[in-house]
Every structure is written in structure tokens, then in C-alpha cells.
Amino acid sequence: KNGTVLHQVKHAYATMPETVNKVLNQHSVGKKAFIQGWIKSVRKLKNHIFFNINDGSTREAIQVVAEMEAAQNIRTGASVSVLGTLSIAPNNQKELKAENVQLIGDCVITEGYPFAPRKVYPPEYVRQYLHFRPRTNRFSSLLRVRSNLLTEVTKYFNEVGFIHINTPIITSNDCEGGGEVFTAVPANKELIKQMGKPGEPTEKTYFNSEVYLTVSGQLHLEAVAHGLSKVYTMGPVFRAENSRSRLHLSEFYMLEAELAFINKISEILNVIENLLKTVTRRVLETSQDDINYLTNNKDFSWLDKPFVILTYDEAINILSSKLKMPDTDARSETEFSKEDELAVVSYCGNLPTFVINWPKQVKAFYMRECEDNPKKVSALDLLVPGVGEIVGGGLRENTYEKLQKNIPSDDKNFEWYLELRKFGGVPTGGFGLGFERYLQFLLDIENIKDAIPFPRWPHNCQL
Ligand code: 4AD
């Protein structure tokens, strides 16, 4: 009764469906292949029709040649399945000689499909159609690089002895203490009413306290590092910032690592530099074709040079004395603006640049005081060209009394965090790398919304 299913059954007895990547790169000429994908372009000659099919497994499309009557309703954007034999076209390219072409889903542009054949659209236009964006050449390349990047990160951490941990999404702590949290409330009002006790605000009745979507997995990662020593996590984090900048999302992915038994910030800097260099080198190999296409053979010479290390005071000095940035004095002892970050990196030869030893008041409560200056903390930011900060981290305060002073005294939710210092405490440190910002840096992506499949930012969560 169902045409589509019948087509698949008809093909299946001959051979199983394979990816375009496998057929193009592993099949020998003369072998039968059954592929499925979307048509990228069509050329009709007198008796034959030529069309290119891509299924997302590779950047390449495979050319199919079919007899005209076998492929009557073929048009760009439609999904099809093709059974054929791999052969060599007169231009020496591999080509599938079709024996059977089946239309799976038609695509009629005049009925509202937003992309015309062979036309290139600016990212802002493509972003209006997030549900169709994975079919565009550039975005499918980005998604393959993103996937390979995560594979290489996982492989690398495994090789250097880190254990992967899942940290919770729902949490009662605001790790960064910035108040940029989304509150999680059950949607079922009836349930809230049933569970609520008289006099308690309804939002708190499900978990008996206010709970949030996590802004960082760090605090939980620290607890696990106190048993497994070297741990990492990669998960979504949520920030209720009112920022519509090209570098901010309300939901993004953070790669966080935590190490126990470390006393020097240089140990964390080494982990970050080795991670970024090794993973980048490897993904340049595994995603060579996609990266060349996306970046037009960009220069990666930073991979062969050491990262720059500056103290906060040195960076301020560069901004005020060397670069004569306006208002630098007024901004000293504060966070850097985006302009400051990019100016420091440019001054440092466009090399990734660590800024360490930050003023205590601009960093979160958990940062460890510098041994030689209690006004400074052993915090780090890593700044890169085009993006600015991509990593934040540092040593954690491991002295119980000092940490207790930094935590707001009325906040009971941090008792467990303090206890880590009380029972078998060890010095720890770690960092968080913004995964989308890393992709922006790697691939010269101007807007962070083009580095994640379904971006969320203020006023935008329809899809
Ligand atoms: O500097 P942040 O806030 O550090 C932390 O959350 C630490 N608890 C991490 C740790 O030590 N385990 O954020 C880390 C990184 C930033 O450097 C940036 O790359 C990215 O997360 N980031 C964002 N990316 C996209 N959109 C946002 N709104 C971001 N906020 C931070």
C-alpha cells in the first residue's frame, strides 16, 4: 500500500543502502551500489539526465546518470534513492550509472522551499530556516567538523588519562555567582498545587528549593575530581544573559576539565595548550576537505608556536601604555571589554594569549588567592584572534576558611562544596572551553549562531 516502503524492499534484495562517502571512496568501479540522498543539481541532455546526490556523509556529491524516462520527475532539493553501478565518466570522475531511480520526497521551490538551485545565500538568510540549514553545503560541512572535533577531544582526553563524567543539568547552585541563571519550574501547575505546602512559594515545591539550569558543571566536576583525580565533561550550559552579540548564546556547549593534586597555574596552561594544539592538528587531518572549503586554506601557523602568557597587570600595561586604549585606567581592576581582548591578542602577534592572575573582585568566589598577593587570584582566560576569550579557568580555593569567607553566608547549597575541603581535600584546578567559540576560532565563523545546529538567544527559541 505504501509506495516508499515498496521501493526500499525492491532495492533491498539487490544490495543494502550505503553512504555516498563509502561509495565514492571505497567502492571499486563495476560494483553495484544503492544510495539515498538529496539532489544538489540536475542537468538534462537529449536522452540522459545527470544529477548530483549528497547524503551529508561527505562534502562530495556523487554524479548519477540515468536514462531520461527512468528519472522523469527529478529536481533539485528532492530526496531520491538510486540503484546503480559505479563507473568512470568521460571526465575521469566516478559516476553511478542508474538502473533504478525512485523519488522519495519531491521538493517544489514555488511552494515555499527557501533555497533556489546553485544560489549561495548569506548566513543571516540561511539562519531563518534552521530546519533546512543542515542541507546547505556550508552548514553540513560545519556539522561534520563539529562532530570530528568532539571525537578528537574525547580521544585526546582518554589518551592523557582523564575520565569522562556527566554533571547535572538541573542544579541548586549558581556556579558563577553572576545570577545569569534560568530557573527550572515544573510546567504542570496541578502538580505544583498538589505538592505545595501552605506558605511556600510554588516554584520551590518540587525540589524544596529553587533550582536552575546549570551555568557550568565545574562544582560537581570538582567533587568527582576529589575521587577520580583527572576528569572532564562536555555538556550544554545555560546563561540568561541579555546579550545578542555575535559571541553569546543562551544555550551553549562547554568542555570542562578538572585536575586534582595541582598547585601551579602553569600545569593547567599546559593541559589547555596541548589539548588545543593536538585536537586542532588532528581535526585538520580528519576534516581536511571541509575545513579547506570553509576557511579557504587559512593559516594555522599558531600551532607551531608557544602560546603567550601575560599577567593581568602586564596586559593592562599593554592596553594603556603601548596601545593607548581609551579609559584603560578607569577599567583597571575590571574585566576586559571585547575590544581590549582583541587588542591584546593582536599586540601579541595574533597568537593565543593566556591572561593570568586577575583582580579578586572580577572573578568568581571559588578562585584561589595568589600566594604573593591576596588581592589577586590564580585565574586564567585564554584569548584568541577574532573571538577573544575562549577558555576560562584557574586554581580553586582549597583552604576551608578562605573559601567559607567568599561564599555568601546565607547560602546553604554550598555546604557540600565546602566539605570537599574539610575531608581529604586536595588542591584542584581546571577550565571550561566554549565549544562554539572554539569552532568560531578554528573556522573563522563570524557569528556563534552559525556554530551550533539550533541556536538560542534572547527572543529566539521557536525551533
Ligand atoms: O569563563 P566561564 O564563565 O567559565 C566557567 O564557567 C568556569 N566555571 C569553567 C571552569 O573552570 N570549569 O565560561 C567558560 C567559557 C568562556 O571562556 C567562553 O568560551 C564560553 O565558556 N562562554 C560562552 N559561549 C557562548 N555563549 C555564552 N553566553 C558564553 N559564556 C561563556
TrEMBL record:
What are this entry's molecular-function GO terms? Answer: asparagine-tRNA ligase activity; ATP binding; nucleic acid binding
User: What GO terms in the biological process aspect are recorded for it?
Assistant: asparaginyl-tRNA aminoacylation
Q: Which Pfam families match?
A: tRNA-synt_2, tRNA_anti-codon
Q: What is its EC number?
A: 6.1.1.22
- Which keywords belong to this entry? Aminoacyl-tRNA synthetase, ATP-binding, Ligase, Nucleotide-binding, Protein biosynthesis
Q: Which GO terms describe its cellular component?
A: mitochondrion
* Signal peptide segment: none
**Taking every annotated instance into account, which residue ranges of this chain make up the domain Aminoacyl-transfer RNA synthetases class-II family profile?**
143-453
- Could you tell me the superkingdom of the organism this chain comes from? Eukaryota
- Family recorded in the similarity comment: Belongs to the class-II aminoacyl-tRNA synthetase family.
Protein name per the record: asparagine--tRNA ligase
Q: What organism does the UniProt record list as the source?
A: Agrilus planipennis (Emerald ash borer)
